[in-house]
Amino acid sequence: MKGYQTEFIELARACNVLQFGQFELKSGRTSPYFFNAGKFSTGRAMATLGRCYAQCIVDSGVEFDLLLGPAYKGIPLGTATAIALADQHGINVPFAYNRKEVKAHGEGGSLVGASLVGRALVIDDVITAGTAVREVLAMIEDAGATLAGVVIGLDRQERGVDQVSAVQELRQAHEIPVISIIALEHIIDYLGSAGAESTELLGAMQHYREQFGAIVDS
Ligand SMILES: O=P(O)(O)OC[C@H]1O[C@H](OP(=O)(O)OP(=O)(O)O)[C@H](O)[C@@H]1O
Ligand SMILES: O=C(O)c1cc(=O)[nH]c(=O)[nH]1
């Protein structure tokens, strides 16, 4: 694993971002685990997170003109990434984000920040079934911009609309890079090394994976 991947997992553990129980997802699936990026909730955590995303972007070589962080959790992630790209790599790029509800007064609209033009790199926390990215793609196309790629913290390696993973579907349908800092398999490895107390969790995750896991992995 790369240094920023280890740093990301350690930060997620320290911030209790990974939670176990029963969670209803955006896709309607009921998952035994949840990656709650809202728990990255201190200045230091966001600074580290921004550096992890920025390093991942630089290593991938993806070309883009602006960062786009979809509401809600993509907003602080996109912002932290923009700061880290400027501070750590000397790459000063515009960033934009959206509102889930259109604002009717003041400047109005649902897009905030830089103008959505050129190649947009979407920054988000998680991909499960790929719905959020499809929604943000519609927003990008409406604005006349293009999708340069997607960067996420966690690829849950689940089916999209077909048998392959949602990440794979996005790559194939749009011919774009979809880059994740970590994937479900890293979480499973972590639980496997955590000893007997995680046996039950691993069983529940395996069961969930049989229901919703991608047949062909990303
Ligand atoms: O791949 P998908 O099946 O679309 O699921 C993943 C999406 O679901 C969550 O967004 P959501 O809008 O639920 O949450 P947020 O407002 O907390 O960001 C998450 O932040 C991802 O954007
Ligand atoms: O699919 C989702 O809605 C989802 C999964 C997850 O692990 N974390 C999250 O914030 N959303």
UniProtKB/TrEMBL annotation:
> So which domain of life are we looking at?
Bacteria
User: Assembly state and interactors?
Assistant: Homodimer.
- Entry's Pfam families? Pribosyltran
| Phosphoribosyltransferase domain segment(s) | 48-163
Q: Which UniProt keywords apply?
A: Glycosyltransferase, Magnesium, Pyrimidine biosynthesis, Transferase
Q: Which residues bind 5-phospho-alpha-D-ribose 1-diphosphate?
A: 26, 72-73, 99-100, 103, 105, 124-132
Cite the EC number.
2.4.2.10
The record's family statement is: Belongs to the purine/pyrimidine phosphoribosyltransferase family. PyrE subfamily.
Gene symbol of the encoding locus? pyrE
What HAMAP family does this protein map onto? Answer: PyrE
Cite the annotated pathway: Pyrimidine metabolism; UMP biosynthesis via de novo pathway; UMP from orotate: step 1/2
Molecular-function annotations in GO: orotate phosphoribosyltransferase activity
User: Gene3D superfamilies, alphabetically?
Assistant: 3.40.50.2020
Q: Which InterPro entries does the entry mention?
A: OPRT, Or_phspho_trans_dom, PRTase-like, PRTase_dom
Catalytic reactions of this protein: orotidine 5'-phosphate + diphosphate = orotate + 5-phospho-alpha-D-ribose 1-diphosphate
Q: Does this entry carry the keyword Ribosomal protein? A: no
- Tell me the protein's name: Orotate phosphoribosyltransferase
Q: Where are the transmembrane segments?
A: none
Binding residue positions for orotate: 34-35, 128, 156
Function, as annotated: Catalyzes the transfer of a ribosyl phosphate group from 5-phosphoribose 1-diphosphate to orotate, leading to the formation of orotidine monophosphate (OMP).
Cofactors needed by this protein, per the record, are: Mg(2+)
Q: Does the keyword Ribonucleoprotein apply?
A: no
